[in-house]
Amino acid sequence: MTTKKTTSKKSSAPSRRRRKSKKTNMFLGNFFKKNPRLAWWIGGVGVVIIYIWVFYYFFVGPTGFRWRALYGDAKYPKGYEIHGIDISHYQGEINWDKLRHSMIEGCPLRFIIIKSTEGSTKLDENFNDNFYQSREYGFIRGAYHFWSNKSTAREQAYYFLKQVHLENGDLPPVLDIEHMPKNRSIEDFQRDVLTWLHIVEDRYHVKPIIYTYFKFKEQYLNAPVFEDYPYWIAHYYVDKVEYKGSWKFWQHTDVGRLPGIKGHVDLNIYNGSFYDLKKLTIGSEDSDQ
């Protein structure tokens, strides 16, 4: 028995689209072969447009990191009196006697947050010295872990706890998170971040501080569960933080200069009084609650 083949409209539609697309590609190919200069001009304009968009997105736009050459030297936010810095081995050897007497806009330097670990294997080479000296010279100190997409959240959390021993009077532990892995969903990434936060919180019984730039916060850490954590927002060369949620710290420039530190240093302000900052520290009644 033989059957008559039938072709449905649904199956024929894609083939028509393929034929149409093929004809279009052939037409464009022939057109650009006959007009090579025009092809170069169109390609060049396209590259310039993409370059301008990337440059604006990352360096100029209000939601991107700012470019120092465009925006000049450090600007100091108005209305804040509690100033601090964050440091790592990039600042080299610090003259703590000079730094102790530093003033920012007529206000003393109050807190220093120090890079400690990165991933599950890297300890900042100056961490132990910076961590010790910052307390010896009377600063409120903190330590931050730089998130890596090359290690598991659990490995990173336990490595941080192994290398960093915070004490009463120190700021809560800080998770610096700026990159999301390309091969994971936002939901899986958020679970990884929460794993680190929960492990570290169980050790110190305080909510860790999350450091990030506000675009990253809005794109990848916008689940309600993250609203319980204090935020340290990076946003340079603007008059105010454009992140609409609550925040504790603002890293407002990466081109600060202070006595005792060679080169540039990140400058930060605390969103509150010195009394509030003290209450945030480990061992205070507020942080225990």
Would you write up a description of this structure?
With 289 residues, the protein is α/β, with parallel strands linked by helices. The protein is 40% helix and 19% strand. It is built from ten helices and ten strands. Helix 8 links the parallel strand 7 and strand 8 (231-234). The termini are far apart.
Q: Please state roughly what percent of the residues sit in beta strands, choosing from under 5%, 5-15%, 15-25%, 25-35%, 35-45% or over 45%.
A: 15-25%
Look at the helices and sheets and give the structural class: alpha/beta
Average pLDDT metric: 85
Strand ordering within the main sheet: 1-3-5-6-7-8-9-10
Number of helices: 10
Order of helices and strands: HHHEHEEEHEHEHEHEEEHH
Question: If you compute it from the alpha carbons, what radius of gyration comes out, rounded to the nearest whole angstrom?
Answer: 26 Å
- How far do the termini sit from each other? 83 Å
The number of E-state strands comes to 10
Largest sheet: 8 strands, mixed, barrel
Overall spatial form: globular
Stretches where pLDDT is under 50 for at least 5 consecutive residues are: 1-11, 56-71
Q: Estimate the helix proportion, in percent.
A: 40-55%
Could you give a quick summary of the protein structure above?
This protein is an alpha/beta fold. It has 10 helices and 10 strands.
